[in-house]
Amino acid sequence: MANIDLGFPTDGDWAWITEQYVETAWDSLTEERQHKTSKKVVRDCTLEQITRLIEKHGAENQVFIARDNHDELVGFIWVGQSRSGFTGAVQAYILSVYVTEACRGQGLGRRLMLRAEDWAREHNFKSIGLGVAAHNVSAITLYEKLGYQPETMRMVKDLGGSTATVTGLV
Fold first, then answer.
1. Neighbouring C-beta atoms of residue 147, cutoff 10 Å
2. Which of 27, 53, 90, 122 is the most exposed place for a label (fewest CB within 10 A)?
3. What is the CA 128 to chain-centroid distance, rounded?
4. Domain spans of the chain, in order of start
């Protein structure tokens, strides 16, 4: 992994970053969830998020891109800030991590994570969080090795497609 440089994205990198972000979002869904939605819906929702993030890129969030010695893109990490819904504390937050299949298992994910942590420290954040798909065992293993610990678990239940309306709430 010594021949991989970490840097900032160029204007020409955003299409690739966006495509990998969408793929990562799709892959984070369980197979059951993938069957209940479409990749187009995930793409549309993700593109909406990315558009908002790019507007504040460099100010409130940062992408670090990984290039090999042939100047090929081989990974990225997108780190920003978020406010805890439980404590109100502002913390750094890993929005997305991606490493090409050819570079997986070689330490690039670790390098990207450590770079994001450095960014968080440079911006005086006291903690950093992330979300990970429960079925992504390799990512969970990496995060645990880096000292990340579970904080909450998000769960979902399918209600059979009903579209009930809640009324009477104050």
1. 8
2. 122
3. 12
4. 5-145
